[in-house]
């Protein structure tokens, strides 16, 4: 049995993991979804001051306050940035890091750095016009699809995402990571790549070359960027395989 801490990407709360968490529990694991400050049921805590540091503190406190150990920490999408920062603080409490359709960030990077410049401009327009200058509502699906694949989301799942998504405090996208994790030699490091990410890995993109080297392990989930919505049970099966196949 493993203890999974499931950290959602932008605009999402713990609600997004419900089906995957249930399936992991049925497989004998402890599955603990997290909602970061200002999102999901914590949307009332959103302020212009909520930043990347806030979310790093959220993840760190979630583990420390419950005295969790031998943790498998799962980062979906945007969560790769705060999870990378939190991993540096959690150190030996972590057994495994799983980057779900994401990858660790280097010191000085921010989420906006991995987006095309024209997309960043459109996001800033959304913040200015619809977010009071500090929040980013879930963009229209046309723009969202330019950020990451919406493959696999049927109409009901798109409606769920549109209905339950909450605006993202934009400082979380703008702030740069100050101290990336120094992963210990015994930490199991895993990438679960959906279709677009797998294509990048297969293409040997230079900035991702380190992920092709030991000790990183790869798993493929054939769907788009929101597998907890499009393939929740299959995602649980993959995470279960991540644990059972560990060295």
TrEMBL record:
- Name of this chain's protein: AB hydrolase-1 domain-containing protein
Q: Which Pfam families match?
A: Abhydrolase_6 (PF12697)
Domain AB hydrolase-1, first and last residues per copy: 5-237
The organism named in the record is Streptomyces albospinus
User: What superkingdom heads the lineage?
Assistant: Bacteria
